[in-house]
Amino acid sequence: MPSGFFEGIEPIRFEGADSKNPLAFRHYNPDEIVMGKRMEDHLRFAVAWWHSFAWEGGDPFGGPTFERPWHPQDDMGRARIKADIAFEMFEILGQPYFCWHDADIRPERGNFADNLRTLEEITDYIGEKMQVSGTKLLWGTANMFSHRRWMAGASTNPDPDVFAFAAATVKSCLDATHKLGGENYVLWGGREGYETLLNTDMKTELDHMGRFLNMVVEYKHKIGFQGTILVEPKPQEPSKHQYDYDAATCIGFLRKYGLENEVKLNLEQGHAILAGHSFEHEIAVAAAEGMLGSIDMNRNDYQSGWDTDQFPNNTPEVALAYYYILNAGGFTTGGTNFDAKIRRQSIDSKDLIAAHVGGMDICARGLKAAAAMIDDGGLQAAISDRYSGWKTPEALAMLNSDLDDIAAQVLAKAINPTPRSGRQEILESYVNMFV
Ligand code: XUL
Ligand code: CO
Fold first, then answer.
1. Nearest 5°: CA angle at 106, between 100 and 112?
2. Helix axes 247-256, 202-223, angle to 10 degrees
3. Helix, strand, or coil here: 246?
4. Segments of 148-218 assigned E as strands
5. Both 216 and 98 in a single domain?
6. Which residue lies with its CA nearest to atom 10 of ligand 1?
7. Do both 68 and 163 map to the same domain?
8. What is the pLDDT of residues 398-415, one digit of tens each?
């Protein structure tokens, strides 16, 4: 028996670009082939349990606005109702995946033994629902930032008991992810950083975080988990400074602790903006190092300076993100997780559905634009032309030469470079033809 929470809302269908129905897809057509692959298999959409079901609509100035049938979330009975309604939403949207933190799906009990028991119970329940619906787990993760025990960090906490609690918690979440056939496991270190340097031993904290991540990888292999371990960069918020600042910082960290072949990155649009980058910059950095894993799709308010986690609605931005993802070969175990929440005034169940429909549509539109740009080849041709000088044997030989020899060549051949246009405006206008 459906709960009635989404009463009157039918499964979302593709109606084509001219449809004015907010509960229909205009661009997302799962079976449509783009660059030889189904759209659904390119985008691999996931719904985030925390924003869609666990968040109650509060902000720093006001309490919950949503009043869902599963609130307050302190009881296993209501955790099950929340799961029931989540799967009703998955049936309406038809997206292939979802993601969770342990704290989103089970009530917080304040001690490890009870948290473990309730996690096992609810993930068994979710597992049964997955069998029936066919919706799969893109990734699981541990919430090691909300409860007060995490206030000074998880693996970077000065208190070894918190490190131990974190290790036990990640073990339990990795076990649960493995049990549910999850395709990735994410670590986002919201409190792995500092509030003030005055009380922080940074070297010790980084060494503990590096050892912790190695333990996670060792445990993944021990239990035979085939999924990818992902870390998620973010520069700050909630901590003043987070050690996983951006893609480049994470890559340096992974190399330092010998994890570059074991761990990839989960990149988020809003986190990129907070770090002073574009989303496509972060994707390109990870792709250049072979460490692009998955994305958290959302949008930040460019005026606010904090992580607003809105649903994406800007085709040019999304198109460039997928352009770099497709150029890197597309997702393997990763996907497009909507780490996005409706605004606190969007209190109707219809708002929750319409937000995802709009987000999925924008992503589909961006994907098609990206594929068209790749098919046309204009950007690739421009780059190839710009670096064509490096295709000559003399230029390549210089890389194996030395400063003495190169200086002698410059004198002998009277080398004097001719500046060339970078053609930026022409390329920007080129991109506009597709979006
Ligand atoms: C926070 C954030 C997290 C991670 C998972 O900004 O993005 O929800 O995605 O912990
Ligand atoms: Co995220």
1. 105
2. 80
3. coil
4. 184-187, 193-194
5. yes
6. 188
7. yes
8. 999 999 999 999 999 999
pLDDT at 335: 99
Tokens representing residue 401 in the block: 């030469």
Could you tell me the CA-to-CA distances from 288 to 159, 278, 382 in Å, in that order?
Answer: 37, 16, 19
| Geometric angle at alpha carbon 368, from 366 and 372, rounded to 5° | 115
From the CB of 232, is ligand 1 less than 6 Å away?
yes
Q: What is the CATH number of the domain that holds 79?
A: 3.20.20.150
Q: Would you state the pLDDT for residue 1? A: 84
In this structure, what token pair is assigned to residue 47?
A: 């719904």
Q: Is 186 close to ligand 1, i.e. is its CB under 6 Å away? A: yes
Q: Which two tokens stand for residue 127?
A: 């597992």
How far is 116 from 176, CA to CA, in rounded Å?
10
Catalytic residue list contains 101: yes
On whether the CB atoms of residues 266 and 295 are closer than 8 A, the answer is yes
The C-alpha atoms of residue 369 and residue 371 are separated, in whole angstroms, by: 5
Query: What does the pLDDT read at residue 242?
Result: 98
Interhelix angle 279-288/247-256, nearest 10 degrees:
30
Q: Dump pLDDT digits (tens) for 340-375.
A: 999 999 999 999 999 999 999 999 999 999 999 999
Q: Which candidate in 101, 271, 277, 356 is catalytic?
A: 101
241 a catalytic residue: no
Range(s) of the domain holding residue 259: 33-376
pTM over 0.90: yes
302 and 398 belong to one structural domain: no
Q: Quick check: 360 and 318 in contact, CB under 8 A?
A: no
- 259 plus 407 within the same structural domain: no
Q: What is the pLDDT of residue 65?
A: 98
Task: Return the ligand 1 atom nearest residue 187 CA.
Answer: 10
Is 381 among the domain residues?
no
* Assigned domain for 24 exists: no
Residues of the chain with pLDDT under 70: none
Same domain, 273 and 408: no
Q: What is the pLDDT of residue 96?
A: 99
